[in-house]
Write a structure and sequence with these properties.
18% of the residues lie in helices and 39% in strands. The chain contains 9 helices and 30 strands. The longest helix has 18 residues, at 85-102. The protein is rod-shaped. 20% of the residues are buried. Keywords: Repeat, Ribonucleoprotein, Ribosomal protein, RNA-binding.
Length: 553
């Protein structure tokens, strides 16, 4: 009894370990897929064998091995301790990982599963999340070769309370890549010619691997000619020879070029394409302001919209030419410094205004359709897509042009006479009223100043009389009705009277005849004096006029 009491008191003096702590134990048996572990303190517990296995491996544990376990409960319903080897490893792993995270050290782990948005990684007892974007420096299509492989990771974030750990494989690769890039870049110099492998192609160029470091081969440096799609020139995996154009050792950016290894076609442009020479080229690009035409690979010229057509002034270049179309162009200007060639499309065709002038000289009658009606005249469509203009003043001989233009509509076919062709200003003047001739010119044909003609009175007014000659109206003022002031009365005439008048003026512009009865009388008197009398004859004016009248009778 004394010995039993001593042993009992000794057992009471031994402190039972706290639940939630890690303790050491010894494997005393393995049965039914479990290891029976004596953790001391007269406690035993069971742990599944799978907790002693690494991902993808068989469990490695034998009777007699000492292991660490996590004491979850001192005793369960069966009187056994509830223990876990996996939780013990996790606790130890978290302690180790927190130290690594604080010192920014790498940790070793293995990818063992795939989850939404990424993968799960075993970090020696703790499970971490590896986002898909952090697997590699470039998107990974097949992660199979990486599964179960021991490799380093960088801890990006961890929260022990929530049990969250986020790691990155990409950070390790980028760090290694940066060291490799720095080593390669240190050996590169501008102007070096090196071999590289095309790794990626974009719309603006291609990335070429120079042996651990990528350089950008921009689309404008692939060839001297215009390259619309880099895939026309390169393919992924292709080995190419490139020249180092620029190296930025701070940002590790490398610019590469392929065309620099070829002869510059612009060196011979002036000799090959003299001014005003005509060449055949291919349309490569069309813009709002013109079209680019390739004369040879690497040499393009711009046909400005103003140089595309003689007649189509306000249309998009795409309505005149199309991409890949072969056209004839004339060299208008070359600027080798700016690598620009100005080309003309319309210059390869004859000026339609010059052609029109040859075919339809001034005075020729033409026919055309009314294309447009404006406040100052009509535009009439002619041959070769050119227009002629009929001014208001050329619509009719009689009346106002503003009234006459109301009689015309778009689409009307009209006859007109060419009155002027200005090839420099690209203008053609037409006259509709000239088609039937000028009635004024026909009426006064042979009539000149000083002629005596017979007119018919058509109207009596206070200021004079209106008369008509060959259908042309004229007005004789009161002061020109007679030499004698007393006879200068309009009422002494009647409509229908025919009287002889003297022409004092022929104004073709205003289409008016200047007429005067007074001038006729004075001229007749002067003529009579010259024929029948002289200053020393002694005859009176009445005698002279009487003799003249008697002779006329």
């Amino acid at each position: 009894m004394e010995e039993f009491e001593a042993l009992l008191n000794e057992s009471f003096e031994i402190d039972t370990p706290d639940e939630g702590s890690v303790v050491k134990g010894k494997v005393i048996a393995i049965e039914a897929g479990q290891a029976i572990i004596d953790v001391g303190y007269k406690m035993e517990g069971r742990v599944d064998l799978k907790e002693f296995a690494n991902p993808g491996e068989a469990p490695q544990i034998e009777v007699g091995d000492e292991v660490e376990v996590y004491l979850r409960n001192v005793e369960n319903a069966r009187g056994e301790a509830v223990i876990s080897h996996e939780m013990a490893k996790r606790e130890a792993a978290w302690d180790r990982l927190e130290k690594a995270y604080a010192s920014e050290e790498r940790v070793e782990g293995a990818i063992f599963g795939r989850v939404k948005g990424g993968f799960t990684v075993d970090l020696g007892g703790a499970v971490a999340f590896l986002p898909g974007s952090q697997v590699d420096v470039r998107p990974v299509r097949d992660a199979g070769p990486l599964m179960g492989l021991k490799q380093p990771f960088q801890i990006l974030k961890m929260d022990r309370r929530r049990g969250n750990i986020v790691v990155s494989r990409r950070a390790i690769l980028e760090e290694s890549r940066a060291e490799q890039r720095a080593e390669v870049i240190a050996k590169l110099n501008e102007g070096d010619v090196v071999d590289g492998v095309v790794k990626n192609i974009t719309e603006y160029g291609a990335f070429v691997d120079l042996g651990g470091v990528d350089g950008l081969l921009h689309v404008t440096d692939m060839a001297w000619r215009r390259v619309n799609d880099p895939k026309e020139v390169l393919s992924i995996g292709e080995t190419v020879k490139v020249q180092v154009i620029k190296v930025n050792k701070d940002t590790h950016r490398i610019s590469l070029g392929m065309k620099q290894l070829q002869d510059d076609p612009w060196d011979a442009v002036e000799a090959r394409y003299p001014l005003e020479s005509v060449h055949t080229g291919r349309v490569t690009n069309i813009t709002d302001y013109g079209a680019f035409v390739e004369l040879e690979p690497g040499v393009e010229g711009l046909v400005h919209v103003s140089e595309m057509s003689w007649t189509k002034k306000n249309v998009h270049p795409g309505k005149i030419v199309s991409t890949s179309q072969e056209v004839e162009v004339m060299v208008l200007e070359i600027d080798t410094a700016k690598r620009r060639v100005s080309l003309g499309l319309k210059q390869t065709m004859r000026n339609p205004w010059e052609v029109f002038e040859e075919q339809y000289p001034v005075g020729t009658q033409v026919e055309g359709e009314v294309k447009n009606i404006t406040e100052f005249g009509l535009f009439v469509g002619l041959d070769n897509d050119i227009d002629g203009m009929v001014h208001l003043s050329d619509l009719t001989w009689e009346g106002r042009g503003e009234d006459a233009i109301q009689n015309y509509r778009k689409g009307d076919v009209v006859q007109a006479v060419v009155t002027e062709v200005d090839t420099d200003k690209e203008r053609i003047s037409l006259s509709i009223k000239a088609v039937d001739g000028d009635p004024f010119a026909e009426a006064v044909d042979g009539v000149k100043r000083g002629s005596v003609i017979t007119v018919e009175v058509t109207a009596i007014e206070d200021g004079g009389i209106e008369v008509e000659y060959e259908g042309m109206k004229s007005f004789i003022r009161r002061s020109d009705l007679s030499r004698d002031r007393a006879e200068q009365r309009p009422e002494r005439f009647q409509v229908g009277d025919k009287i002889d008048v003297r022409v004092t003026n022929v104004d073709a512009k205003s289409r008016r005849l200047g007429l005067s009865i007074k001038a006729r009388e004075i001229a007749e008197e002067k003529e009579a004096v010259e024929q029948y009398g002289s200053s020393d004859s002694g005859a009176s004016l009445g005698d002279i006029l009487g003799a003249a009248l008697k002779q006329d009778d």
